[in-house]
Design a protein that fits this description.
This protein has 11 helices and 14 strands. It has 329 residues and is α/β, with parallel strands linked by helices. The chain folds into 2 domains: 156 residues, Quinone Oxidoreductase, Chain A, domain 1, CATH 3.90.180.10; 142 residues, Quinone Oxidoreductase, Chain A, domain 1, CATH 3.90.180.10. Helix 4 packs across helix 10 and helix 7 crosses helix 8. The longest helix is centred in the C-terminal third of the chain and has 16 residues. It is globular and about 60 Å long. Pfam families: ADH_N, ADH_zinc_N. GO terms for molecular function: oxidoreductase activity. Keywords: NADP.
């Protein structure tokens, strides 16, 4: 099968190899998926760059956790009726060497849920990390009906879906954006208010937008950098669910202040989500896709030969939406 892989860490152009690898065979409890699209996420390109020094200890890595395709074979214990089923794949390259950047992937049947017929294959490749992260951030701490939620970076890969999940659940949403285009995107997704996080004291702007009220929960893309402003606009007993802190990698917490506010701090990463949370996110996503109630953004749709470019685009940023790579028809 054709595949992309890396045997050393470094820049995409220096490390990613495209060639032939042996087609895997599904083991017990696994399915063999012919991959239609693979979707690199920031976590994937960070791995290739060397974020986890031990990653290559057991051999070369075929990257990418998210993808979509069709089941062509099943292993022992898997219902043969799944053969021919359209699926999306998540956690393709987590705790294992072989991800979705290949013509085939053999993976636990639970990691290849059914993709509703209403969803194109390109969309199936996006369902893993961004949508499931957003779902966990919004729903992990109980019903949000009638709550007010602040979503920082609302036009980002996760924020885009977090706005949609929150509005679907009946929350009031305040999003942050840094330019008019992103502000328009947030409003299109359903945000009730949008403030500019590039401006000083934007936390106070959130309170002003809400007529003096504060938010009950926060879905945060830059925890360390945003915390001082978040603390200006979050209610007593509030919850901060965060999935990234790239600008300030080792944040210092104002413990006394946060303790006396009785705040809950939740760290979110799809790989470590409880299994029941993953299953709920999948079920809700399948339902929303079947009903046509989720909007998506594909910024770049590339051929497999441009796998290097897909990684470079993710690292460069500066665009809204995801990057998908077509692997096979």
């Amino acid at each position: 099968m054709k595949a992309a892989w890396f045997e050393s860490f470094g820049a995409a152009a220096d490390t990613l190899i495209i060639g032939d690898q042996e087609t895997p065979t599904p083991g017990a409890g696994e399915v063999l998926v012919k991959v239609a699209y693979t979707c690199p996420n920031p976590s994937d390109v960070k791995k290739r760059a060397g974020a986890f020094p031990n990653l290559l200890d057991n051999g070369p890595v075929i990257p990418n956790s998210d993808g979509s395709g069709v089941i062509e074979a099943v292993g022992e214990g898997v219902d043969p009726s799944r053969i021919g089923e359209r699926v999306f794949v998540y956690q393709g390259q987590y705790g294992r060497l072989l991800g979705t950047a290949a013509e085939y992937i053999a993976i636990d049947s639970n990691r290849a849920p059914k993709l509703p017929d209403e969803a194109p294959m390109e969309v199936g490749a996006l369902i893993g990390i961004p949508i499931m992260t957003a779902h966990r951030c919004v729903y992990a701490d109980g019903d949000v009906t009638g709550k007010t939620i602040l979503i920082t970076g609302g036009a980002g890969r996760v924020g885009y879906y977090a706005i949609q999940w929150a509005k679907t659940a009946g929350a009031t949403v305040v999003a942050t954006a840094s330019n008019p285009a992103d502000e328009a995107t947030c409003k299109e997704m359903g945000a009730d208010f949008v403030v500019n996080h590039r401006e000083a004291n934007w936390g106070e702007a959130v309170v002003n937008a809400l007529g003096g009220d504060k938010v009950d929960r926060v879905v945060d893309v830059e925890f360390g950098a945003n915390l001082p402003e978040v603390l200006k606009c979050i209610n007593i007993n509030g919850v901060i669910a965060t999935y990234s802190s790239t600008q300030v990698k080792e944040p210092q917490l104002p413990f006394i202040q946060m303790m006396f506010m009785d705040l809950t701090l939740r760290m979110v990463i799809v790989y470590a989500m409880p299994e029941e949370a993953k299953m709920q996110a999948i079920a809700d996503t399948q339902r929303m896709l079947s009903e046509g109630k989720l909007q998506h953004r594909i910024a770049h749709n590339l051929p497999f030969s441009e796998m290097v470019k897909s990684n470079e685009l993710i690292e460069q940023g500066g665009f809204g939406g995801c990057v998908v790579v077509k692997v096979s028809a």
